Amino acid sequence: MQSKNLLELASAISSGAVRVVDLTFTLSPDFPVIVLPPEFGQAAPVRIQEISRYDGRGPAWYWNNVTFGEHTGTHFDAPIHWFTGKDLANNAVDTMPTRDMMAPACVIDCSAQAAKDPDFLLSIADVEAWEAKHGKIPARHWVLLRTDWSKKGWRDYANLRDDGAHTPGPNPAVMKWLVEERGIIGFGTETIGTDAGQAGHLDPPYPAHHFLHGGGRYGLQCLCNLDQLPPTGAVIVAAPLKIQNGSGSPLRVIALVAS
Amino acid sequence: MIEPIKPPGRKNPLLRTRLPTAPPRPRSRKSHGFTRAAAEGRFMLQCCEACGTFCYPAREACPSCLSSGLAFVDAPRRGTLLSETTARVPSDVYFRERAPWRAGLIKMDCGPIIIAHLHADCVETAAVLMSFQLDKSGQAVAFARPEGETPNMADDRQWRELTADPKFRRVLVTNGRSVVGQEAAMALKAAGAKTVFVGIAEPWRPFPGESALRGHEGIEIVALDAADEKSVNDLAADIGGKVDILVNTTEYVRAGGLLDRRGTSVMRDEIDQAYLGFVNLAQGFGPAMRMRGADGVNNAAAWVNVLSVYALANWPAFGAYSASQAACLSLSHCLRAELRPGGVKVVNLFTGPVDNEWFQTVPPPKVAPRAVASAIVSALKNGLEDVYVGDVAEEIRQRLAANPKALERELDR
Predict the structure, then answer these.
(1) Residues A71, A75, A81, A213: which is the catalytic one?
(2) Residue A169: is it exposed, middle or buried by C-beta count within 10 angstroms (0-12/13-18/19+)?
(3) Topology of domain B170-411, per CATH?
(4) Domains of chain B: which residue ranges?
(5) Residue A41 CB: number of other CB atoms within 10 A?
(6) Stated pTM of the model
(7) Average pLDDT by consecutive 10-residue portion of chain A (259 residues)?
(8) Is A10 helix (H, G, I), strand (E, B) or coil?
(9) Residue B210 contacts A where some CB pair is shorter than 8 Å
(10) Which residues of chain B lie closer than 8 angstroms to A157, CB-CB?
C-alpha cells in the first residue's frame, strides 16, 4: 500500500469524511461487573483514588491511582483467558500480534429479538439470514452482536435474577461455525460477557469463550454505540493494554466508519 | 415532669452553627476506672479488699483502713438525693451555654456520697439510680435519675447531652445489603429517628430484603459503596451536613487465614471493604459531624462501628477477617480521639459470629442480626462506648481479661 493512501485516511479522519465512533463505556466504579458466586475469586472493581488535585498533595497537578480487574468495563478477552486457549502461542494481550488490533466488522442487528427475549441466542440461521442480505462474512472480520443492551439502565443491563443473569448471546453451534467456517477474528457484544447470561447451562458452557479462545480468537464486551455502525464496512481499532501475560484488559474501542 | 422535646424545624440559614464546646477534661489516672465502667454501661466503685468499704471519688488508699487494695467492682446503683443545686451562671463555657444546670449530692446505699448531674425528675430525699456516663469530653461523670420511670424520661435535657438517642436524629446506615444493616435501619427508625439513610453499593445487584427496605416509611435508600472513595464523597456532598448518627455496618466475612489461601486478592477485598471503607467514611463524613456537635436537638452525636469480637483476639479459622477487624478497631480509637472536639461519640459493638451465610458452618451460639440492631439502639440511648453483643462476645471479653495467652491458645483449634 502506498503511504499516500494512508495519509488520505488520516485526512479523511481529520475532515470527518471518516467518522470515528467510540464503542466504549466510561471506566467507572458504577459500571456493572461480571458476577460470580461469592466463594470464587472476584474481579477487583474499578477504583479511582485521587493522588492530588491542585491541592496540598500536589499544588499544580491532578492525577489518580486506578485499580481494576482485567475484565472490567469495556474490555478485551485474549485466548489465554479460557482453558481452551491456554496452550496457544502468543495468546496473551502482551504477545498477541499487533495487526490483530485493527480489523473490519460485520454488525448483526438482533435488537428486536433481544427486546422480546432477554435470553435470545444467536443461531446459524440468524447469521445466514444476515449473509443473504449483506454477503458472506469474510475471514479475519469481527462479528459484533447488536442488541441495544447498552442503552439500558444498570440494573436491567445486568438483569440478575434468582437463577443468574439473563442477557443475550450466541448459541454453541453458531460460535463453532463462526470460528471454523467463517474464520472470524473475534466476537463482540454489548452485554457484560461475550456469552449469554445463562450460557453456563449450554453445551459446552460459555460457548463464545470456549470456541473463540480455543481457536485463538478474541472477545470484546460491554460495547456501546453499535447502532451507529453500518452492517459492513466499519473498521474496529481494539488495542488492549500491554499487560504482562494479561488475559484481557479494559480498553478504548473505536470504529472507523466511512460517511 | 419533662416536656417532650419537639421535632426540630429546619435550620435558619442566617444563623451561624454553634461550635461544640466541651466540659472539663482532666482526670486522675485512677479515675479512668469510672471511664471504663461508663464505656461499658456498668456502675463500678472502688471497694476496699480489706474492709469492704466503698469509696468515691477515686483514691489510692481506703479512707477507712488505709489499705491500698482498692479495686473497681460492680456496685449497687441505688442512693438517695440529699441536696441539689442549680448553677445559673457557671464560669465554664460548656456549662454556661447550657445553664441552668442541676447537680446534686447523692448518698449511696453502699456508703459513699457522690456529686452527680441530675435528671430533671430527681427530687430531694427520694431514691435515685446512679450511673456513670461519658460526657462530651469522653470522661466519666456520675448521673442520677429517678428510681422509677417518669414520663418522657429520655427527653431530659441533661440526659440527652450524655447520650446519642436516635430520637429526631438523622442516621446513615452504611450497608443495607446485610441483614444486620436492614435490621439496624428498622430498629433506628422505630426508635424515633427522623430519617434513616441506607447505603446500597452496586445498586444494579438485587438483594434479599430490598422491597421491605424500599417500602419503609422514613427509610431512604442511597447509593453508597464505602470502599469507593468517590461514592462516599458524592454521598457526603449530598447529605454530609445532615448525618447525626453514622452506623457503619460494613460486613465482609470470608473464612480462612494465611496458608490455605492463595494470593492476596481476598485479603485485599477484606481490607478494601472493612478498613479502607472505614477510612473513606471517616474522611467523607467525619469533618462535618465534628463541626456539628452542638447543632441543636439533632446535633451530630455518634458514630457506631459493628465489629467482630475477634478484632480483640485472632480466630485463625477466620484469621484474615479477624486481622481486618483488628485494623478497624485500632482505627476507631483514632477516630474517637479526632471526633472528640465535636463531642461525637464513637461506639464499638463487638459481636460473636452473626447468624448469616458466612458463618453457616459455625455452630451456635450465634448472634441474631436483630440482637445486633437492638444493641445499637440501646448503646445510643444509653451513651455507651464499648458493647459486647451475645454470649460469644462476652465470653471472649472475659477470657481476654483473665489471660490473653490462654485465649490465643484456645482459639487456635
Answers:
(1) A81
(2) buried
(3) Rossmann fold (3.40.50)
(4) 32-161, 170-411
(5) 12
(6) 0.94
(7) 91 97 96 88 92 96 96 98 98 98 98 98 98 98 98 96 96 98 98 97 97 98 98 98 98 96
(8) helix
(9) no
(10) 204
